[in-house]
Amino acid sequence: MRRGVPGIVILLVFLFNSAPVMGAQTDWTVYQTLDLENVPVDMLVEPKNQRVYILDDQGEIAIYTFNGRLKGKITVGPDVLQIKAGPTENMLFLLRQKSKTVESILITLTEQIDIQGSPFKGAADAPVTLAVFSDFQCPYCARLVPVLDQVLERYPGKVKVVFKHFPLRSHPFADKAARASMAAFHMGKFWAFHDLLFKNYNQISDQKIEEVRAKLDLDAGKFAREMSADRTRARISADIRNGSEAGVRGTPTVFVNGKELRNKSLAGFQRAIDDALEK
Q1: Which pLDDT belongs to residue 17?
Q2: What is the spatial distance between Cα 194 and Cα 184, in angstroms, rounded to a whole number?
Q3: Which of 15, 104, 243, 248 could be cross-linked to 253 through a Cys-Cys bond (beta carbons 3.0 to 4.6 Å apart)?
């Protein structure tokens, strides 16, 4: 009995005897060019924290944002051949040639957080600044409020809490609530407005904002003017831009003297603050 031709052979015969299929036209263009001081030898992209790590032939790793802004450099030595992503956002693996080792390192960036003119609690000259990027419709931000109050109680004169606006597009009244809080700020009642908004974070609406205004006895006409004032909109836009440049992607995001805090429990705050005070 004659054996059949294997299916794989039939497939190949079909492919080689078929007429060529014309693919779609493909174009490409240079989106961005980074000018480096030395020769790049390896690169790592971390989409989650939106960083690009570039290793050069002199043993330096340059850290960039996705839009090409240089955030910092670290020197690891010329014997590092490759860099690999670690299990956490701020960990890298270094593959060293001479020592035949793989080394893990933790990278902590100190961001430039602009706190000029922002609402704050605590001593103005406190050595530790907690910059909190927040959204008035965010349930996690609301839960953080009592933790921040406890932190201020435990570190009198040593810590100040600075409020930074980061209204999320997914929250329909977040921007309006932010503008309302800044209207209250210019009328001397930011923190009272802040507390009432967060107590009602899941009920924020035009009506709720008006209720809070009335409860705090803020003049309706001046309040409306302050809400729509250029300086109010500019403050919120500046906060969003500053947060985006610092890597803020969600709320709440907290920076302790410019270093992002991952553990936002009371214990996590205490460890970070104690460390900052020691330095």
Answers
A1: 53
A2: 9
A3: 248
Assigned token pair, 214 = 């009335």
Give the pair of three-digit tokens for residue 209.
């904002």
Phi, psi of 102 (to 5 degrees): -115, 120
Q: How far apart are CA 199 and CA 182, in angstroms?
A: 17
Q: Residue written as tokens 């035009």? A: 206
Tell me which residue has tokens 């921040």.
148
| CA nearest neighbour of 84 among 48, 42, 50 | 42
Rounded-to-integer distance, Cα 279 and Cα 274, Å: 9
Interval 34-62: pLDDT, tens: 888 899 999 999 887 778 999 999 999 99
The whole-angstrom distance between residue 55's C-alpha and the CA centroid of its chain comes to 23
How are strands ordered across the β-sheet holding 253-256? 120-122, 159-165, 128-134, 253-256, 259-261
SS3 content of the chain, % helix, strand, coil (to 5): 35, 25, 40
Distances (CA, A) of 188 to 134, 141, 226, 233, 236: 20, 22, 12, 18, 18
The answer to whether 252 touches 132, Cβ cutoff 8 Å, is: yes
Mean pLDDT, the chain, whole residue set:
91
